[in-house]
What does this fold into?
Amino acid sequence: MTPRPRARRIGIMLWPSPGRNAGFERALWCEDQGFDDVWFPDGEGMQDALTLAAGVATRTAQVRLCTGIVPVYNRPPAILATSALALSHLAPGRFVLGIGSSTHAMVENWYGRRFEKPLAHVRETTELLRRLFAGEKTDFRGEALCSRGFRLKEMPAASVPIHIAAMGPKMLDLAGEIGDGVVLNDMTPDDRIPEALERIDRGAKRSGRRVEDLEISIRRAVIVSRDEGPARELFRSQFTFYASTPVYQRQMVLLGYREQIDEIRTGYATRDRRRSLAAVDDAMLERFYVFGDGDACRARIRASYEAGIDSVFVSPQAGDAAGFESTCEAFAPAVFSAAGSRRST
It folds into this structure.
C-alpha cells in the first residue's frame, strides 16, 4: 500500500496525576506548546476520561480532546451519547469519541460484565450512537444491545467523530467499515502497520470508502532518557502484563511469539515472575516500545508516520513529573518540526 498523503498530527496521552489541577495544567501546557491533540485514557481505576475531557474543554481553546479509549461494556450507548453531547457543546468541533472493546480481564474482573460478542458490542454501540446523534428515538434490538424510546433532547453542537480501537484482524475490518477513525496501540509494531492498513481498507470498502477516508491514530509508549536500563525494565514488565491477557496473547502469536507467550503464561501460572520476564528479550522491547534519547525516540515516531499513520499520540511512561515533562518536551511541535518529523508525505 502506498503512503497516505495526509497532514500528520502529534498528541500526548494525559495520564491523570494526583492533585486537583495537575491534569488541567498539563493539558494547558500541551496546548501552549502547539500539540494537536490530548488523549484521555479510561477504565483503569484512574480519573474518568470523559469527566477530565470536560474539565479540560473549559480551559482550552484549540487542542483536540480525544478519549483513548472508553470501553463499550461499562457505558451503554445512551449514556455515552449524553456525555458526547455535553462535550460537543463544551468544545465544539474539538471532541473525538474513542471507543473499544477493552479486555476480558477488565470487563469481567473489574466491571462484573460478561466479555461476550465484542465485535457486536462495538458495531451496535457505534450504530446506536450515530442514530442518537442524528436525533432519532431508539427502537433497537441487536445481537448484543437493545434500546427503546430514548432520544437526545438536543443535537450535538458539532459532529462527534467515532474512532474505534482495533488490533486483531476482525476488529480492524470492522473499524474500517464503521469508524470515522481507527486507533491502533503499542502492540502494532511499525513493520505491521501496512498490513493493518490493508485490513482497515478492506473494511472501509464495504461501506463505499477507502482507508484514506479515515484518520488512523496510534499510541506509542515512550520514555525519553539516555539511560535505557530503567526503560527496558519497565517495558519488560509491561509486556508480560499485556501478554497475560487472551486478546494480547492472540496478537503476540500472530506476530510470531508463540514460544515466548507460552513461557510468560507458565511463569504467571507458577507465580515465577523471573521466568515471565526472561521470556521478553531486548529485540521484542525495541519492536514495540520507544525509548532512548530524544533523537532516537523522534526517529521511532517518524517511522510510524512513514508506515502510514496520520496521528501519533505519545504515551509518556516515566512515573515522575520530570520524566513526563522531558518526554513531552522532546515531542513539542517546535522541536519535532525542527527534527523533520511532521512533514506531510
In short: The first helix runs from residue 22 to 33. The chain has a mean pLDDT of 92. The CA atoms of residues 6 and 74 lie 34 Å apart.
